[in-house]
Amino acid sequence: MVVSSPETASVRVFPGVIDANQKVELAFRVSGKLKSLPVREGEVVTEGQVIAQLDPADYQIVERDRKARYQEAKANFDRAAQLLPQGYISKADYDRLEATFKSADAALSEARQNLEYTTLKAPFSGRVAKRLVENFQEVQAKQTIVELQDTSSLEVKIDIPESDVKRMREDSVRPVLVARFGPSQDQNFALKVKEYSTVADTKTQTFRVTLSMDSPTSFTVLPGMTTSVVMHTSLGDLTGIASYLIPLDAVHGDIKLDPQVWVVDASTMTLKGVPVKVGAMHDNSIEVVEGLQEGDRIVTAGVAFLTEGQKVRLMKEIEQAEPMGSEGAAN
C-alpha cells in the first residue's frame, strides 16, 4: 500500500463543564448568632483565614463554669489520693472522686472545643463562591455559611461513549486532550485524565471522565463555565508532525525487536527495513509518527518472511503479495 495522511476522524470534540479542584460547604459545628462575617462572594481567602465568627459569650460562660467544676473535682481527687494510703478514705470513695474528676476534665475539654468552634476558618486557600447567610443572623450547627472553592487548578467533566472510554486506560496509549476557550476557540490548555467512571449512565450510555487542568492566568475561568474538549487520538495532531495509519500487520520487529516497516524502493523494487515510531492503535491499524513519509510504498502482508534487499513485484488489482521464488511482492 501507499502511505497517505490519515483522515480527520482522529479528532473528537466533547462539551465539558468546569469544576473546582476542591470545594467545600463551610459550617459551624455549634449554633449561635453571627457576630462577624467579613468575607464577600468572589473574594480570595488564604488557608487559616477567618471566614465567620459567632458571638462567643454563651460558650465563654459555659467554659468558665466547667473550669470551676474541674478545679473542684481535681482538688477533691488530689486530697483523696493522699488520704487513701493512710486508710482515711475507702477505695470506693476514691474511685467515685476519680470518676468525677475525669468527667469534669472531659466536660472542660468539650467546653473549650465548643468555644473554638465559634470561629470558622478556611481549610485551604481558595475563592468564596457563595455566601448563604447574613451577618447577625441566628445559625444552626451544620448550617452552610459559605461555599469555598480551590481554583488554583480546575477539573473538566465530560461524558464520552464506550468506544472512547477504552482509551482512558492507563495501560493503553492515551489520547491528547485539550480544552478550548474564547469566542474563536483559540485558547488551548492541556488536560490530564484524573479519573473516569466504569459504569455507563443508564440514559445516555456514556461514561463520565474527570480531567484536570492548570488554572489560566491570562483570563478568568470559573466553575460552572463550559468549554470544548478536543480529543486527539493521533499523536501528530498537536505537534504538527505527520502521522500515518497503516495496517497493524505491516509492522514487525527487527533483530532487536524494535518496530520497523518494509519499504519498497520504487527504482529497484527491493525492500528496505525502516525503523518507525508507533503511536495509538485504531482497530486493525496503528499510527506511525516517525519513520515514514507520505507516498512511501510499504508491504502489508507476509512481512515476517521477507529479508533486507529482497526483490518484490506489485500484484495486479486487489491481489495480495506473494513470494516469487527468491523474490517477494508488495501491494
UniProtKB/TrEMBL annotation:
Cross-referenced Pfam families: BSH_RND, HH_MFP_RND, RND-MFP_C
Sequence ranges assigned to domain Multidrug resistance protein MdtA-like C-terminal permuted SH3 in this UniProt record: 245-303
Domain Multidrug resistance protein MdtA-like barrel-sandwich hybrid: 23-144
Keywords, alphabetical: Transport
Stretches of the chain forming a coiled coil according to its record: none
SUPFAM superfamilies attached to this UniProt entry: HlyD-like secretion proteins
Multidrug resistance protein MdtA-like alpha-helical hairpin domain mapped to chain residues: 67-118
One function term, GO molecular function aspect: efflux transmembrane transporter activity
GO CC annotations, alphabetized: efflux pump complex
Gene3D superfamilies found in the cross-reference section: 2.40.30.170, 2.40.420.20, 2.40.50.100, Helix hairpin bin
Cell compartment(s), UniProt: Cell envelope
Family statement: Belongs to the membrane fusion protein (MFP) (TC 8.A.1) family.
Name the UniProt record assigns to this protein: Efflux RND transporter periplasmic adaptor subunit
Organism of this sequence: Aestuariirhabdus litorea
Species lineage: Bacteria, Pseudomonadati, Pseudomonadota, Gammaproteobacteria, Oceanospirillales
